[in-house]
Amino acid sequence: MTQRGEPMIVVERLEKHYGPTRAVDGVSFSVAAGEVFGLLGHNGAGKTTTIRMLTGRTRPSAGRARIAGHDIVSDLHAIKPIINLVFEDQNLYERLSGRENLHFFCDLYAVPRVRAAELLDIVGLTEAAGRKVKTYSTGMKQRLLIARSLVNQPRLLFLDEPTRGLDPVSARDIREIVRQLSAAGTTVFLTTHYMDEADELCQRVAFLSQGKIVALDAPRELKLRYGQRSSTVLLDDRVEHTVDLHDPIAATHLQEWMQAGRVLTIHSHEGTLEDVFIALAGRPL
């Protein structure tokens, strides 16, 4: 069994071609067990195609990948029981209740139906369990989708844009569920357009541009490496100055102000993941 810290996913030069188009162009990375790993990029960058290959929904054109030591092509039968996914489309049975939706999937996975009650509690839908899903809000449907994806207690969960279109409260609830899953040892492979969300949840992120990974590291390291670091300095004349910490001349001014006792406050500002993405991919999400 894969232990926390050992690779849950190992990807080596993975490619997917559609005619002359290379949707995924030789990506390589690994994901540790229990890690929340973010794959970030524009629409069409290859994020969903990567997930489709890793989950057996489309066959790679070249390269290889392993999940929990199993090859995604030749050993797919061994992978399916230990993974699950939530795609962006909310494909629920809307005429059934939330509880009935989960009972249906418990039966498919040969899991006792009592599991449905446990999952409804985890995602905060116990009180709405008897209502038809068509009466649910978008955020409630997304929580039910996540509950459904946990029926088989997957060791690896793929979440494709899980908070897109949700209100702030619903998005916060989804992020909290992701944190709890990771704390319990579930590996989470996440795609998102929201840089703040990736920064908050992911131990590491990879930036995908035109099918290639252009950067991969912990969010903090990427921000320090590529982000614009600056400070806002308030002087004794009540005038604020923005100091670029990469600029040696600006740093000299700051030192002079400090030595003269003119500095009232200093507020530092590190770069954001959005800054990093623009620097690497050339345009904002």
Low-confidence stretches: none
Radius of gyration: 23 Å
Which percent range fits the helix content? Answer: 25-40%
Give the CA-CA distance, first to last residue. 38 Å
- How many helices? The count is 10
Protein model, in words:
The radius of gyration is 23 Å and the shape is globular. A six-stranded mixed beta sheet has the order 6-7-8-3-9-10, with helices on both faces. α6 (168-183) links the parallel β7 (156-160) and β8 (187-191). The mean pLDDT is 90. It has 285 residues and is an alpha/beta fold. The protein has helices at residues 47-54, 76-79, 98-108, 114-122, 138-149, 168-183, 195-201, 219-226, 248-259, 273-281, and strands at 7-18, 21-32, 36-40, 62-67, 70-71, 83-86, 156-160, 187-191, 204-209, 212-217, 230-235, 240-244, 263-269. The chain has ten helices and 13 strands. α3 packs across α4 (114-122).
Ordered list of secondary-structure elements with their pairings:
Layout: E1 7-18, E2 21-32, E3 36-40, H1 47-54, E4 62-67, E5 70-71, H2 76-79, E6 83-86, H3 98-108, H4 114-122, H5 138-149, E7 156-160, H6 168-183, E8 187-191, H7 195-201, E9 204-209, E10 212-217, H8 219-226, E11 230-235, E12 240-244, H9 248-259, E13 263-269, H10 273-281
Parallel strand pairs: 3-8, 3-9, 6-7, 7-8
Antiparallel strand pairs: 1-2, 1-4, 4-5, 9-10, 11-12, 11-13
Helix pairs in contact: 3-4, 5-6, 8-10
Provide a compact summary of the structure:
By secondary structure, the protein is an alpha/beta fold. 34% of the residues lie in helices and 28% in strands. It has helices spanning 47-54, 76-79, 98-108, 114-122, 138-149, 168-183, 195-201, 219-226, 248-259, 273-281; strands at 7-18, 21-32, 36-40, 62-67, 70-71, 83-86, 156-160, 187-191, 204-209, 212-217, 230-235, 240-244, 263-269.
